[in-house]
Amino acid sequence: MSTEMADTDDSATDDGFVARQSATLFDSAQPLVLESGETLGPIQVAYQTYGKLSPRKDNTVFICHALTGDAHVAGRHHEDDRKPGWWDGFIGPGKAIDTNRYFVVCANILGGCQGTTGPSSENPVTGKPYGPDFPFITIRDIVNVHNALLDHLDIEKVLAVVGGSLGGMQVLEWAVSRPDRVGAAVVLASGPKLNAQGIAFNAVGRRAIYSDPLFHDGWYYGEEEKPRFGLALARMIAHITYLSEQSIELKFGRKLQNGEEFGFDLKSETEFQIESYLHYQGNQFVDRFDANSYLALTRAMDYFDLSEAYGSIADALSRANSRFLVVSYSTDWLYPTAQSKEIVRSLIEVRKHVTFRELLSPFGHDAFLIEQELPKLEALVSPFLARTYTDGRKSN
Amino acid sequence: MSTEMADTDDSATDDGFVARQSATLFDSAQPLVLESGETLGPIQVAYQTYGKLSPRKDNTVFICHALTGDAHVAGRHHEDDRKPGWWDGFIGPGKAIDTNRYFVVCANILGGCQGTTGPSSENPVTGKPYGPDFPFITIRDIVNVHNALLDHLDIEKVLAVVGGSLGGMQVLEWAVSRPDRVGAAVVLASGPKLNAQGIAFNAVGRRAIYSDPLFHDGWYYGEEEKPRFGLALARMIAHITYLSEQSIELKFGRKLQNGEEFGFDLKSETEFQIESYLHYQGNQFVDRFDANSYLALTRAMDYFDLSEAYGSIADALSRANSRFLVVSYSTDWLYPTAQSKEIVRSLIEVRKHVTFRELLSPFGHDAFLIEQELPKLEALVSPFLARTYTDGRKSN
Questions:
Q1: What mean pLDDT value characterizes chain A?
Q2: pLDDT at res. A14
Q3: Which pLDDT does position B121 carry in this prediction?
């Protein structure tokens, strides 16, 4: 695997702000061979780092983001940034993943639209965005690219790989396909495969995009208008699955958006607060996400199946060489606890070191991202990382 | 309430086939006053009857259909009909609701598109379909129209009102707003209100329709193409909520539609069987349903709230004068058992006669419609109706 042409845009800043970095990996002569058999190269990877790599290079924590996340996992780029990174409550100096101690790396995933090569990136052959010509990618391809990034950063082995949801699937893939590179695997709100109901929701989201007349079979980049409606709708559907019935009921219930009386107006789409919230979520999303990326990444999610790839979940996990922390959330119905337990049972079967906890939370699948739920998660992740770190130093 | 201009198209047939019937109720001089304050008339009501009304007129079972159902609840209209009515396994001679004994009536609901006045009906003022000018309707309006149908049929009181899902909401409304007209109320897979998650799914379905460019703000009747994509998408979303995770997993799991190998083709929308199934369901639906009706009826469903209308569920149900049978299904997550229990607790609180059972089923919300689940339901409904019937005859 070649890792040439590193072109870091910007080095880590010392002023408390975080810098966007980028590497160009692979090239057209030595492209990445994808799971589909197609090839891709060069591949640009956007990433960010936090803390300092130890002289022994044994303190790297690699964060795998979820479906629509990005490399900006914590901190701010500028003092006037409205919001910090998506897991800022969990990662930073003195936080659950303590950047005074660990060197944290997070990279945008292959197929995404936040700096890593994806459908909206320029196809070097045509000089135009790949669009629907972007090759089909899988979780394994995503992990392969991030492995190449580690090579590029000259890091042989990471202390831990940590991720939730689609990020958790990447963690499992890391542990199984790169066993000697992973000290510990932290799998949050995830599973060894997406169940059929999850595929169904993804399918409906994709349908919304495909049937948007502004989608133009994926060739919308040069157009004035993007397939906003389809993508927003896909996001609205998915967003419902990220919440629990309980959390929607607690937060919104049947409360109306304006006043206390029904409007009896069929033209109003946002009469109940939950409707207004979903519309807002959908509209926000289309400003930061690309429809072709959404198609590609939900398909990568559908395809991931540890047992299909290796015969059984246990056969897959028998290849791992790391310790595991598996965490599920009691009201997560997208990746229910039963899925985490399947992983745990298989790990025990093949005699791997595993810690498992189902956290009680009303917040459904998204709980691992929600500020007020982070202390419970910290109480599990922080000592788990510390123990892995200490044990690693002892054995070296 | 006026019930003039009865124009039965077709009398009941004696050849084993069922006939479509129709009544014109209300008129422009004496219109129905809707809950919104608007008025509507005349109103055409499509209905079908099964069995014979007893000389004492005490054997009527009124069936309330669900969101997208119709009056054709059982039997065939012609010998070459591909399928019988939607609850044919449950209603007929010798069946759970035995038409040798009971006189069954089922009518299409107000706002629907199967013969009862709805947005696709002709607006007498303009001579064109109502479209988005159709007034906002509620469950109470639907029940008021069906009450007028009873007047028209000269039936003072029904032995029972029976319905599942949105039909169950109608049953509750019947019991509460027309207490002296209902002997027994059978509420299946339903609740005193839709929870916020249900409103959320309805909202996304409506969004799909509104954002279909062929929707033309509801004025699509004269157009060559209807908003098929939007309506099909709405149906696909809703259909997922009618199934359980367990039933999708059992029936489809991660099975592929063609062969055993992944296609790595992002253009394929039906790679997994569950996707193909949902697309099929969506496409079938648009041939028989009207988008404006879908909007109107999902809003009626959102608005229904026994406690909002009467102060509390118990206050609402204290008005009832019937006995109740409440049935929920263990894997129904659209109207979970907890909602049925809320009804039951309130009924007990106000000292009404109630029988409750949660039926174990893998089939989710749709279980009450599924052939193989009907024997369990029959074991509850059949004796409940028989007892009500016998007790009623004793007391008269």
A1: 94
A2: 56
A3: 98
Residue B248 has pLDDT above 60, yes or no: yes
Interval A311-368: pLDDT, tens: 999 999 999 999 999 999 999 999 999 999 999 999 999 999 999 999 999 999 999 9
Whole-model pTM? 0.94
Which of A132, A194, A278 comes nearest B203 by C-beta? A278
| 3 state SS of B308 | helix
Closest residue of chain A to B263, computed from CA coordinates:
A36
Reference B244, options B349, B123, B331, B140; nearest CA is B331
Q: What pLDDT is recorded for position A12?
A: 46
How many Cβ atoms are within 10 Å of A6's Cβ, its own excluded? 14
Give pLDDT, residue A396: 63
Q: Are the Cβ atoms of B266 and A136 closer than 8 angstroms?
A: yes
B interface mutation test: which of A264, A277, A302 has the most B CBs within 10 A?
A264
Output phi, psi for B82, to 5 deg.
Answer: -65, -40
Q: Look up the ipTM and state it.
A: 0.93
Structure tokens at A171: 């963690």
Q: Tens digits of per-residue pLDDT, B262-287?
A: 999 999 999 999 999 999 999 999 99
How far B235 CA lies from chain A's nearest CA (Å)? 10
**Cα B229 to Cα B235: distance, rounded to the nearest angstrom:** 10
In chain B, how many H helices and how many E strands? 11, 14
Please say if the pLDDT value at position B5 is more than 50: no
Show residues of chain A in contact with B266, CB under 8 Å.
Answer: 132, 136, 295-296, 299
As a whole number of Å, the end-to-end CA separation of chain A is 27
Tell me the two tokens of residue A328.
Answer: 């599920």
Q: Which of B344, B365, B357, B360 is nearest to B384 (CA)?
A: B357
Domains of chain A: 21-194+307-395 (3.40.50.1820), 198-298 (1.10.1740.110)
The angle formed by the CA atoms of residues B371, B298 and A245, to the nearest 5 degrees, is 80
The Cα B252–Cα B264 span in angstroms is: 20
Q: Which of residues 79-118 of B touch A (CB under 8 A)?
A: none
Asked if omega into A42 is within 30° of 0 (cis), the reply is yes
| CA distances to A158, A171, A180, A193, A314 from A175, in Å | 11, 6, 8, 15, 13
pLDDT for position A135: 98
- How far is A373 from chain B, CA to nearest CA, in Å? 21
Q: Which helix (H) or strand (E) holds A63?
A: strand A60-64
A244 among known catalytic residues: no
How remote is the C-alpha of B189 from its chain's centroid? Answer: 11
Neighbours of B320 (CB within 10 A): 22
Specify whether A78 is catalytic. Answer: no
Mean pLDDT, to the nearest integer, of B94-121? 98
Question: φ, ψ for residue B96 (rounded to 5)?
Answer: -50, -50
Is A9 a residue whose pLDDT tops 60? no
3-state SS of B1-65 is: CCCCCCCCCCCCCCCCCCCCEEEEECCCCCCEECCCCCEECCEEEEEEEECCCCCCCCCEEEEEC
What is the per-residue pLDDT across B177-186, written as a single tens digit (0 to 9) for each?
A: 999 999 999 9
Tens digit of each residue's pLDDT (9 = 90 or more) over B157-173 = 999 999 999 999 999 99
* Spatial contact of A253 and A235, defined as CB atoms under 8 Å apart: no
